[in-house]
Amino acid sequence: MNEVLFETKGVGKTYGSNTVLHDIDMQIHSGEVIGLIGENGAGKSTLMKMISGVDTPSMGEMFYMGKPYVATSIINANHQGIGMVFQEQSLVANLTISQNIYLGREKKYSKAGLVNWAKMNKDAKKALERVDLSVDPGKKVRDIDMATREMVEIAKVLDVVTEVADGHAIILLDEPTTVLSDDEIQQMYVQIQKMKEAGNGIVFISHHLDEILAITDTIYVFKDGEETAVFPTAEANLDVLYEKMVGRSTTGEFYVENKQTVHSDKIALEVEDLSLFGTFNHVSFKLHEGEVLGLAGLDGSGTEEVCACLVGQAAPTAGKIFVDGQEMKFTNSYQARRNGILSVPKDRRDEGMIGILSIEDNITISSWEHLKSNGLLSGKKIRSTAEKWIKEAAIKCTGPKARIAQLSGGNAQKVIFARALESNCKVLILNHPTRGVDVGAKQEIYRLVREMTEAGHAIIVIGDTLDECLGLASNVIIFRDGLISGSFDCPVSGKPSQQEVVHFMM
Amino acid sequence: MNNKRRGLLETLTVGQQFVARAEDNARMDKIRRYAPLILLVIMTAIGGISQKNFFSWANIVNIMFQMSIPLVISVGLSYVLLLGSIDLSIEGNMGFAGSLVAFLVINNSNSNNFGIFGIIVVILIGVAVGALVGFLHTKAKIASFIVTYAMGCIMTGAAILIYRGTPIQVKDPMFVTISQGRLFGIPYITLISFAVFIIGAIIMNYTAFGRAVFAIGDNEAAAASTGINITRTKIKVFALCGCTAAIAGVLQCMRLKLGQSDLGLNQMFPVVTAIVLGGGSVSGGKGGALQSFVGVLIYTELANWLTLMGVDTNVKKVIQGIIIIIAVTLTVEHNRKTVVK
How close A341 gets to chain B, by Cα (Å)? Predict the structure, then answer.
């Protein structure tokens, strides 16, 4: 093997008491393409952020070209020879291609504060030619298609890093193929091959294992922030990768499975051939009272958008939604709630909590219609409702009048669960119900979920992990690239293994 | 503060630091909440010490009278600012309401005599115009400052069309009674404005609608996810603001006994300023009825004090501008919003 360009030794990252990445050893050799795989939240992006200068490690060391490596920002990393092509495209749409490529580096082209655009365009043309792109660099980014943008982004990063480190640069590609067609993916492979032959080191993240097997030399598998396996691509196959990605399953006790109910035959919600153009197609399922339906799928597979359609936050292009047998069309979450569907959003801080309001207001906001006397809100009813839930859900707080912003993640989430339960909505959508919540609060939340189904609620869960999704669900349907790719019954006695399910996800 | 924090970096765990930071924030929050009240006390003290007339009953009544119309405007505008929106149609609405009410009651240009019904019709039109603005804002998704500015233009033009160039003089005895009458020495107009304020405050603090306005202004995405009706709430807010603007226009017409389009001229921005002085925020989610009251009072006291001091009008403007910048700098939550537009 060639010389080692970049190395991490025992690198980890903690946020508060939460460890998201632990003890990562990775070596990137000259002319090597590394494939990095793992479920959502496995820590791939966290590691990339630390190498690319977005974030700094909490522990461990990194070395580049044999010297200790510290990057304080993306630009700083670029100047050292390390660049990343981000998952979300980072081009500025209302600037031209060449302006984007030289964004922050205009000095080279400016005299007395005025930029020589012609000269910049000429250089940009060369940078684009390196990735076999013949587009006019004077075009605005908003006027070019997604695939071209992706290549421009690669051209930009390549130009920046090879300026200082040609032949030993590190290029990080975070899911570069998501927006590309098959032909374009082949072109991407050609470019990766070229970068590799020039002696650079490349890290390639993708959820498509066939791509990983096709283009990489070495595969690193991450699971829950840990490196579970490293092997040469030549020795890998799909089954091995699946097995290494999912790891151990938690015991049924953790998910309070003894309280899992057998659902009734009464259909609470039926979705028929639902499609949202460009996002998901032909989704059909039935949700019964007392059922927990798990939606499993990687980020971008369509699970979250299906739920957005169910609560009126997105308008489906085709298909029908039936609530209690009646066809419904929702244009906002208010209509959805009035017809019995409410969602517990994924991003608690930005979409769930209303920081300015008290805990009692946050608990009762979805049921204020029922808490009035003489047309005015009844402080007494609000108070007693809140107190009931604070006790029921064991919310640790100084009192119902305290602001929700002061609560810890787990307790704030319980407030939002209390809100959902108090709303009298039959169908509840739990989107990552335990994201950023400690183990104790997780158990409380699982217990609440079981109580919900016992009370006849019908629940849709998008699990924070696959393990959680399978643990909670009585049925699970699996999404891949916007289509339902499989489904499993999950009775207490015979839950499918994660390997079986992951197979349908990738 | 920073040096103290740096010392604590070594001795406290990250968790303890988090708690300490949360406590710091809570403390600052409290200071910020009471800052307008402190400002009011200081303003009052300065006024009282430098001008012995300041606390005379005549001057107190004068201040109450001066704050009447701004207070009425502030009632509706507080809701709009709580949403993080703005209503630039207030001045046009006031001009239109004043002109139309002059046209409908006993006046020098026609034989109309609709009396109290005229007033009610004018206020209802204000509500309808506000609701229309809210509808356009939420359904056609036009930014509030554009749609309200446009509506303000329409209303100003419509006002002039009512009286065709020559402002109408009001001759209705009811108007004379209200504008000159007093109860326990307090002008009726002031009493009316206080009544409007109290109703506005009750709606804001004791109805689901009022709470929903806070929720939407603080975090619209979260408010939407709770399934409260965002569209309807916003339309109601603009309708309410149209209502109070119309009432302010009618009161202004009563004071001047004249119906013309510029009754509302330069009435809105001082009120926005007053609300911000009281602890409201133009980006939404902060403030409330009481805060607005305090803000209007501070602003009026300041103007009154500068007049008593015999300060030149132009110098007065400069001083007001400086005081506003200082007050807002002190009260704004610097660490919350990273992007200021």
Answer: 9
